Amino acid sequence: MLIVKAGGASGMDLEAVCSDLADLHREGRRFVLVHGGSHELNLLSEQLGHPPRFLTSVSGYTSRYTDRRTIELFEMVYCGKTNKGLVERLQKLGVNALGLSGIDGRLLSGKRKAALRIQDGAKTRIVRDDLSGKVEQVNHGLLTLLLDAGYTPVVCPPALSTESQAINTDGDRAAARIAAALGAEALVILSDVPGLLREFPDERTLIPALRADQVESAARDFAEGRMRVKLLGALEAIQDGVGRVILADSRTPRPVRSALAGAGTTITP
Question: Candidates 3.90.226.10, 3.30.1330.50, 3.40.710.10, 3.40.1160.10; correct CATH number of 2-268?
Answer without folding.
Answer: 3.40.1160.10
